[in-house]
Write a structure and sequence with these properties.
By secondary structure, this protein is an alpha+beta fold. Helices cover 53% and strands 16% of the residues. It has a 3-stranded antiparallel β-sheet with strand order 1-3-2. It is elongated.
Amino acid sequence: MKHTPLGEFEELVLLTVAAQHDEAYGVSIMESLQKKLERKLNISAIHVALKRMEDKGFISSRFGGITNDRGGRRKKFYVITALGKSMLDQQYALRSSIYLTIPKISFS
């Protein structure tokens, strides 16, 4: 299978989808990342990343029920797929292997 790249922002969104499991949707993902990153994010950027990752097979989605508090609109929930989890595992292994090559440097 061809290697499908995962950008840094996509990786953060995918990690958040995985962490929120079956309760992840656009706004919850954005709010969680804003809290962790301590900066404002655009909901459109979240939706674009989610669409790209769904196209790559890293996540799947389903619609929730219609609610009055959303003006009759349904939330779109996302879950990580086996392929998405495999990609996160690969990213973790890569980053860890690079981190472990840093020499023991004293900055004191």
